Amino acid sequence: NTVMAAQMTNAHRRFLQVLMSNGITEGSEARKLHQHCCETDKVYYAQDKLDDFISTINSHLQPLFMQIRKGISEDDGRAHYAVVNLAETEVTKMASDYTEIELELFRKTMDLIILSENGFASSTDILNLADQLKTKKMKKKEAEQVLKVFVEDRWLSEKNGEYTLHTRCIIEMEQYILSNYQDVARKCNICHSLAIQSQVCESCGIGMHLPCVRKYFRGQTEPRCPKCNEFWSCDTP
Hints:
Layout: H1 2-5, H2 10-22, E1 25-26, H3 27-41, H4 50-61, E2 66-72, E3 79-85, H5 92-95, H6 100-115, E4 121-122, H7 123-129, H8 140-152, E5 156-159, E6 162-165, H9 167-172, H10 174-180, E7 186-187, E8 194-195, E9 198-200, E10 207-209, H11 210-217
């Protein structure tokens, strides 16, 4: 209730503006920004109050169907923050920035990534889709360029010719992915964020992000599933 009643100060507004213009902000940067905004606006600052600070902003964003959401990087487990438009349930967020054919390539790339075993799709497999698009066929050179833009705009990440969903995409499209890929999309059993790159328990089917697997099994002689207690058969990273 105190959070709901809390006033949105200039510090809150400035923090929100920067987050919106960044698209996505890494946790340590968000903490620095929090301190900077509070000190500039001469309002109370406490190092451990970032979540409360964000809750105040979110209470004011609620009527606008917007929210600052926290997610973790599947690569290294670091926290990230992004402003999410809750009214946009599909890939509509991207519709104003990309053409219909580019969006179709993105959706098909998303299919490959989410339906894959490891949360990655090779550039070869993605480029093979380019001449099978319904909107119109796309030349491979053109498709390569579009993929590059998706990486620059932080919807996709690329490593050695393998593509996965960027943390920004996972935070912003979590609801879309969970409702459109119900059979395969799962949340991490440890941090409860959507897990695209994950290890799955062979016995009960729960999934965990690789950084969460690392953290959870650290120091355990025999890794056992946190849900069913069966032996964790995947190679722990």
